[in-house]
Fold:
Amino acid sequence: MPFLKEKEIPLFPVTRKFRIISDPPAFVTRRQLTITPAYALTDFKAQGPTLQNVVVDIGKPQTSG
Structure:
């Protein structure tokens, strides 16, 4: 994909339609990004680079170490 910058990864939405078995039946259309939640921590070289965009979750860590 020539329009992507270096280190950019495209995410494409996926649409799924399904029926919930109930009386009366319910039909659902779900649109989401297919990504896997992950946990990572890097503390070395945290100072230094200038980043154009950053997403930060400052919630409680998943692990103790």
